Fold these 2 entries.
Entry 1:
Amino acid sequence: MVIVRFLSCALSCLFVLPGIGAAQTAAVAAPADNHQALAIFPAPQQVEPHSGKLDLTAGIAMVQPTGDAGAGEVARMLRQWAPDHFLFASKAPQAAARLQFRRVPGMAPESYRLDISPGGARITASDDAGLRYGGVSFWQLVTASPGRVIPAQSISDGPAFRWRGAMLDSARHFQSPQYIRSFIDWMAANKLNRFHWHLVDDQGWRIEIRAFPKLTEVGAGRRPATAPGAPPLPEYRGFYSQAELRDIVAYAADRGIEVIPEIDVPGHALSAIRAYPEWGTGVAIPPGTEAHWGVFPWLYNSDETTLAALETILGEVIAIFPARYVHIGGDEAVKDQWQASPAAQARIRQLGLKDETALQGWFMGRLARYLEARGRTAIGWDEILEGDAPQSVTIMSWRGVGGAIEAAKKGHDAILSPAPQLYLNHVQALNRGDPPGRGEVISLASVLAFEPHPAELSAAEREHILGVQANIWTEHIRIEERASFLAYPRLSALAQVGWTGHGSKDYTGFLRRLMPQLDRLHALGLQPSASAWTPAIAVEPAATGGGAKITLSVQGGLPMQYSLSGAPPLPYSAPFTVPGSAEVKAWATLDGGRLGSGATRRIMPGALQRRDSRALKTCHAKVDLALEDDFPASGPRATFLIDILDPCWIYQGAMLDGVTRIDMAVGQIPFNFQVGKDRDTIKFRRPKTPAGEFEVRLDDCDGPVIATLPLAPAARNPGVTRLTAPIVPTKGRHDLCLTYTAAGPDPLWAIDEVNLLPQEQK
Ligand code: ACM
């Protein structure tokens, strides 16, 4: 591992930099121009200002040493990213500034030195990656200089971790090759270097395998689930041909990104077993296609012919993907089918193994050795440690960081990608309008603060920690733009952790550096989320004098400003009251400047207690999901926050003085979750009418019912239905528990919005 000491006092402290370029010790001060000081992303190790400036107004001519293909690729990438600035030397006017690439031996892997003087710029590195990161840093400086003038400076920089990864799940939902190329560009612009591509799972097989065409004929399509009685949704289909995959691998290589394919075994295998039932244990497969999420019991069998088929698949995989690493999964393989299978039991006896866990160990070991014999290294999720995985296997720790700790102590290399901290399929805020995802919030600040050095490891054991990775699972990410929204800006925070080698609590400092970076990514087609700095505007009836009490909140404690119905902005320091109708606009600020477009909420006297499901609390937060409605097939759909194991919500602090009615907008969604025996724990009160009813209870979920809303009108509507009912007159402020009665969990009923009304609405 490249060990470099990084100090986050970015602008004015002393650095000691073993092994980075020529500079060993240097005094550091901020370059004069603050934009420039914050231009490099992730935060660089060392910036040394010089006097003078480099003038780029005539463009930048890139001069690549003859025969240096790596420098040529960097030049091409910069030209694509900023064609107005970066010109190949042969086409550049005489007056253009020169960018030179220089190779020297002996610099640390992936590190670079970037020297900018009035006479030109020079990137020095030993390897292609170093040249590339020097090029990315230069592009970052150029795009942070609207006047096209860069202060002279020298930057010495390199990453702390050699694994700075992102995993994208293209199995649950498929993304187009064009989108994948954009995703790779955004990674490269953040100096991330490993694209872990989850290509197969129970719900989809997305890689063409020529020896087994049914994998994609059968496994690449599915009909999405719908609630009972709802109209069917169109078939969903997609896979990558080998030619497309080769193209993407080459595109990624040109941007310094290694693509690591994942073929998940022995579980997450249903799409393959549907195509080739002889690879399963003989347990009957439900007809149709797989539209459920969760953990399935289907495992590959461990027969010789199935293992030979998997080796054939891996053979085709390694012919497409030249990366040293191939991920072979190993996660969430429940052993029920092997326990019940006479063939699996006979295999255990034949191999002299203790049990099914040992059989998985043997299974994974066999495939790992197949890869090893071909010069590759297997990666497995941390479960494979349970089965005595060969020491050559690299462990990807996802069930917290314990797997990485155990792995490193046993001599395995390991990568930190713990859930939920680095699982970017979690929502990043509970803002109305944000896309679906897992319901527990993983904030930008929490990703930035992730500490990648488990204290339990000795210095020698830490050498086994290759780095960090964030994972984007796509069960609930149907649309490509939503994958971008969930990935960014949190993936930039992960990039910062991986580059600097530590988490940071300097959120504001990070945002200063992030904002220009997001502008650049935007120019590369990214639409990142602004949720981390978009205030939530909470509204409730004022305690006295009528009107509305407005409370603003935002992640990271950023300062906020607001404006009422277009009046001049005011700084926000505490909740304030609004006497009648008004439009509240609120935004966070950074160094006095406005961050993003902020949030807007219209205050109307009859709707002071209207709350979106994301402003409610689930009662027990067992498995909270922000789930999308299954209707309509095209156009906008509602998103509901719901605990799928306990659909029950708390409306906290309802002011019931004068409230006469409750309005609820509710939707029905399919219970398409494989949750094993947990399904039996989902309990409902018995319905009083055939379709059931929502019940509103006072104070807690055992309190008296103060309103009942029959679901019959909603049961006939596949979309969102508004229900309304009188509420028992009640005084004062109370929590309300909102649940429904039902015969079972399918469909799930979900709340879109609740409104407590002071009088009957005409
Ligand atoms: C995983 O999240 N099942 C690796």
Entry 2:
Amino acid sequence: METKKTIFSGIQPTAVFTLGNFLGAIKNWGALQDSFDCVYSIVDMHAITVRQDAAKLREQTLKSYALTMACGIDPEKSALFIQSHNPHHAEMNWILSCNTQFGELSRMTQFKDKSEKHPDDINAGLFTYPVLMAGDILLYQADLVPIGIDQKQHLELARNVAERFNFRYGDFFTVPEPYIGETGAKIMSLQDPTKKMSKSDDNPNASVYILDDRNSIINKFKRAVTDSETEVRFDAEKKPGISNLMTIFSACTGKSFDEIEKTFSGHGYGDFKSAVGETVADCLKPIQDKYNSFIKDRDYLKNCYTEGLKKAMKISGKTLSKAYRKVGFVDKP
Ligand code: ATP
Ligand code: LTN
């Protein structure tokens, strides 16, 4: 029997997921579950690289778990767990930190962006964040990592760390490949289409959150910043706003850019924006319904993340003990 390849990915429980998180990452997580062994995590340890309110983080982590299930991750098929529950992540982080260079971490653009955004808290964890992420992936010997394009640089670092470890200690880690979907790999802000849509944007009109109600979704699209022309046409450079809306529409309906241009030829932006808003609201409705039922049943959620943890630790435990041997630690008594 052919063994399935392994997938790992994670999402931070910093806020309700955005349409960007869904179309760029989680939608693909769900689609991969039947053909791969999938391990997915709510990465709360990554979230504390930026100051969080403890009570809110705890609640948001459970909400994120329920939301991930509502987006189609089946905890029976995949190992879905909360990162801080598995101590192997912190342990692997140390081993890999000793195999990562200061220089390569200094080149990470997310570190530069986040330290500009939080100048009063440029902590060591924010700097070494990509090492923790490399450990997440390498602990499960993942072949593929479904991510949005913004995480490509971090994945490249994880590959370099894996290759360096393999070179020093003998072939051990699977060197992971990014899995970036064709449409939706980078959904842009509705208020500034040159910036990515982000969970932690201060402007509520910039991001569509998966749990936004129908009217807010439609209104956010009506207010989306576009250019001063009237023609619905894809041109990412000259018409970034309209092109972003076309990307979203295409990702939700499966329609090609050509088809969209034909359908809306002569209609102007108003009609198109309303159509995108309605379509996104329709697409999110079943997710919202499922979320509302999962979040009410805390016992069921607990049962799911306990089982997910068991599955995850079985794999990560094996990798960690082998890595400890490789670097020369004495076997645990
Ligand atoms: P934050 O604003 O808290 O930094 P975020 O919105 O960037 O968060 P993450 O938890 O860092 O979200 O990312 C989860 C996944 O969603 C990653 O795979 C990331 O690449 C993807 N992703 C995030 N934003 C977008 C986007 N605008 N378009 C496509 N994919 C995205
Ligand atoms: N850094 C990612 C979240 C993340 C992740 C991972 C993604 C943490 N660990 C492992 C893929 C694989 C982010 O901010 N989007």
